[in-house]
Design goal:
Length: 198
């Protein structure tokens, strides 16, 4: 890919950004490509050694606050048309409850997912406590001379420790997964909000 094609694709993908930010980002990547070319690389090699346009757009979107995008994208119109105001007011009983319901569903899903993750952490903690109890019980069995119960206690200790590690690792993986998913959803929202301008 040539420099101009790369910069044009980047410009079109970020066209909804504030003009000053857009030009700063484009000039940054143009300078980066020029610096690589000055080091002896061809345009194609300089661009191939960089991140893809998708990765660059994703990184830029993660850095820009939603409020800045809203201010740029939603510009107040001078003089609202009467039919838009009437339509907005008349449809308020429909769109506002739907908006509230959508928000409530998203919030309840988020609460449900985090409840499952927290319950896994609690189970892991309970198994750690159970393994400590098994250690005490196993010591007591051996002290009383009950070898069979002591050996069974050793087995219970290893089972509890193994399960606690498993549940703890599952909890960490699920926590990281939901955080990454939330981050990707936010970037997707920002990217779709910026979009290509008509």
């Amino acid at each position: 890919m040539k420099k101009e094609a790369f910069l044009n694709e980047l410009r079109s993908r970020l066209s909804g950004l504030p003009q000053g930010d857009l030009e700063d980002r484009i000039s940054f990547y143009a300078e980066m490509i020029d610096a690589r070319i000055e080091e002896g690389m061809s345009e194609e090699d300089a661009i191939a050694g960089m991140e893809s346009v998708d990765q660059i757009v994703s990184q830029i979107m993660s850095e820009i606050p939603v409020s800045q995008l809203v201010k740029t994208k939603v510009k107040p119109e001078k003089g609202h048309k009467a039919w838009k105001v009437v339509l907005l007011i008349c449809l308020f009983p429909i769109w506002f409850p739907l908006l509230i319901a959508f928000g409530a569903v998203l919030f309840s899903l988020l609460i449900a997912v985090w409840s499952v993750i927290i319950s896994f952490y609690i189970v892991a903690g309970s198994l750690v406590i159970a393994s400590l109890a098994c250690i005490i019980a196993t010591g007591a069995y051996f002290a009383l001379g009950d070898i069979i119960a002591g050996v069974g206690g050793f087995g219970a200790i290893f089972v509890c420790i193994g399960l606690s590690i498993l549940f703890f690792l599952l909890s960490i993986v699920m926590s990281k997964g939901i955080v990454k998913l939330s981050h990707k959803m936010l970037i997707g929202f920002k990217t779709s909000f910026v979009g290509k301008e008509a």
